[in-house]
Amino acid sequence: MSVNTLAFIPGTWKDADGPLSRFLPPNSQGVGQAWLKKTVQSGGWILDPFATDPYLALETARAGYPLLIAANNPITRFLLEMLAVAPSQEDFQSALAELGASRKGDDRLEHILPSLYVTKCAACDWEIQAQSFLWERDAAGPFARIYTCPHCGDSGERPVTETDLEQLRRLPPAGLHRSRALERVASIDDPVRADVELAVNCYLPRALYVIFTLVNKLDASGLSPARRALLTSLLLVVLDEGSSLWTYPAGRLRPKQLTVPPRFYENNLWLSLEKAVQIWGQACSLPREEPDAGPFQPVKVKIWPEQGEPGEITIFEGRYKDLAEQIKNLSIQGVLTVIPRPNQAYWTLSAVWAGWLWGRERVSSMKSVLSRRRYDWGWQAAAVQSTLTNLTPQSNLSIPGLGILAEVEPPFLAATLLGIQNAGLRFEDMAVRSDPPQAQIHFQTLGLSGRPGGLRESLCKTALSDFLAERGEPSPYLPAFAAILSVLGSERALLPHSIPEQVKRIDPGEQMSHLQAAIHSALNDRSSVDHFLEREQNLEAGAWWLHDAQKTTQPLSDRVEMEVVRFLQRHPGCLLLNLDRAICAQFPGWMTPPADLIRICLESYGQLNSDETWELRSEDQPAARRKEMSEIQSHLVEIGRRLGYQVEERLPIRWMAGNTSLTFCVVASSLIGRYLLDPEYLPDQSILVFPGGRSNLVSYKIQNDPRLEQAVQKGWKLIKFRYLRQLIQDPGLNQETWLSQLNGDPLEFRTIPLRI
Question: In whole angstroms, how far apart are CA 668 and each of 88, 148, 280, 596, 626?
């Protein structure tokens, strides 16, 4: 079996959500730069055939490379162009002020638009701005409003009043703005007209009134291109916030389908305009990867066929396959891209928004997306293949590529690998991180000659067993699936033997079915692996472990913990990003540790300084911890004798009295599996004693390893050092009360924020 050696490249997460962030891939910054510096000579042309993530494009250019992207979506293209210009927040504020001062009839927009969302405070009866109204799907009016009263402080959700409903009835007839919304995208005899109607139906009448009042201002003559671009930027946020795709109650919503939720927010779009100033201002000033690099600087953008210089972006306004023939003489040195995942909501709305902002002619290249209702994984494999097929090398030299997958899930990963293989490219390796779910796939544009090996269930089973033995602990679904898939990709065994060599003629959906069936067969083989399940009886829930675990390595979580401590000892004052990258280099490929494990290990041993650097806590310095261990062991001996037990002082410490025997395993770390899984220790007679600072890490391991959870359920007791010190001070402690008090300081797991 091939060895998975590709180190996952962690990045830094943006501190604030940018425009349309819920539709863009949640990709971390710095990944592209790190890969480029290691892989591609400075100044060489980089190609992004999908143009999914504008932040990755800017990162590439700012690293000093000339970048060529094929951007068929005019909304994503506009985002990139504006972020590249990097206007200041003051620029956006000035544009909003000018917009608010413009007139509609006898009044100014800054008076007219806020008045549409006026409500009365239920506590003091002052007229105030509602932040949003709450609706049920297909209802004639909202059922509640949300506000914060600036006069009396009353805040929260309150029922709507008759005045709120009367406000809606005073709006101009909805038909006029709805007709305009349709006509800006498709004429009445256009075949996609009905599809456009479905998108327009995601907007309430008040939202359409506000939107087209603002669109009219964009259409007005006399605006400079720069001012029009700033206003368009603000309006784009309004177009997003004006839809009914904001689920109530609020959650982390990343809509994939154009379906109005059962309950939703109607946002105050004047407040959305004001918020847009902050959103764009923050997005255009995000810091770069290096702490001392300063804010973003503008990046020059050129439109193909004009070619940019190093540090500039060249945009082809269309699909990559229409560009491929034109760049045969351009020396592409690397392919860096975020692989898009299916999103019917974003692509449909992009087509509609393009029509609203720039007119019907800007929609022509996107009409096919308007009529597509469903994007399945077979479609995804075909789409990846269709684009990457055009990455034919211009010489015998192969071009390296990195495909980044955000929000990765098993079928997304499988469809992407199928698309890469079917396109004739060579899969090199991949690294997968389960939390947050991301994958990084390395490929070469020069494929391998000869026929692929063919899909074999036996290879899937061997890959799974080898992976679990190397992991040393049960694995959730995504890493196990990825390990099998990676081996199949390396062996060129993603397709069954029965499928002809001309894979382009085979339905990608059928390929996906064969591939997933083979992997699931390995996961369902109970003679080889056990499946730990809790409540959900499905293949993607729970964790897998070897049925007969004879020869395995130390658990992955324990090894990660030890490496984090070693790094802190060797690199005091380190940055989280540097530690994360070092740990990922130690555990490459499908063994990549989850980000939350690394952060919990860091929080368990480290101290965060005011300059955002980390160092080993003073109490975890080796000498200090050895001293504390000695004190705890002495406490156990003292308590045992005081309670009338016969005490065996050598480790592990044992208390004995008649038929009662208690064994105390004292540890300074969270390497608890060596005790809880050792059959030498009887669970109902064994107690693990550990530092309180390890509580969260111990809890994490128990939650994520069903074997440890079962050991605790069978009777293992866990005591923190601090609680043991409290017990020794209890003058009423005796053999009867001792055991009843062992659970007095239970474990409680705390999540650690992703961005420390």
Answer: 51, 50, 48, 21, 8
Using CA atoms in the order 568, 574, 580, 584, what is the torsion angle rounded to 10 degrees?
-60
User: What are the strands of the beta sheet with 646-648, ordered from one edge?
Assistant: 646-648, 653-657, 660-666, 686-690, 717-720
CA-to-CA distance for 456 and 444, rounded, in angstroms? 24
Residue 734: CB atoms within 10 A of its CB come to: 10
Q: Give the torsion sign (CA, 221, 355, 231, 340).
A: negative
Phi first, then psi, for residue 648 (nearest 5°) are -100, 110
The mean pLDDT of 21-28, rounded to a whole number, is 91
pLDDT at position 82: 97
Return the C-alpha torsion angle 480, 481, 482, 484, nearest 10: 90
Structure tokens at 158: 């309150």
CA distance 418 to 403: 13
Lowest mean pLDDT, pick from 292-306, 323-337, 412-426, 717-731: 292-306
Whole-angstrom distance, CA of residue 343 vs CA of residue 376: 10
SS3 302: strand
Q: For residue 49, give the amino acid letter.
A: P
51 neighbors 338 (Cβ within 8 angstroms)? no
- Half-sphere exposure in the Cβ direction for 385 (13 Å, CA): 23
CB-hemisphere CA count at 13 Å for 557? Answer: 25
Q: How many Cα atoms are found within 13 Å in the side-chain-facing hemisphere of 621?
A: 7
SS3 606: strand
Going by pLDDT thresholds of 50, 70 and 90, the confidence category of residue 1 is very low
Q: What is the DSSP string of 492-514?
A: T-SS-TTS-S-GGGS-HHHHHHH
pLDDT, tens digit (0-9, with 9 covering 90-100), for 323-347: 988 988 888 999 999 999 989 999 9
- Tokens standing for 130? 């509602």
**What is the C-alpha separation between 638 and 740, in angstroms, rounded?**
19
Dig out the tokens for 156 from the structure: 């929260």
How does pLDDT run across 38-76, given as a tens digit for each residue?
999 988 999 999 999 999 999 999 999 999 999 999 999
Higher-scoring residue by pLDDT: 731, 560:
560
133-182 confidence digits (pLDDT tens): 999 999 999 999 999 999 999 999 999 999 999 999 999 888 889 999 99
- 706-713 and 695-704 are packed helices; what angle lies between their axes, rounded to 10 degrees? 100
Q: By three-state DSSP, how is residue 186 classified?
A: coil
- Look at phi and psi of residue 164 and say left if phi exceeds 0, alpha if psi is from -120 to 50, else beta: alpha
Contact in structure between 82 and 88 (CB atoms under 8 Å): no
Residue-averaged pLDDT of the chain: 90
Contact in structure between 10 and 595 (CB atoms under 8 Å): yes
With beta carbons less than 8 A apart as the criterion, state whether 314 and 69 touch. Answer: yes
Give the separation between CA 479 and CA 593, rounded to whole angstroms: 10
56 and 83 Cβ atoms separated by less than 8 Å: no
**pLDDT value, residue 295:** 55
> What's the per-residue H, E or C state across 439-503?
EEEEEECCCCCCCCCCCCHHHHHHHHHHHHHHHCCCECHHHHHHHHHHHHHHCCCCCCCCCCCCH
**Reported pTM:** 0.92
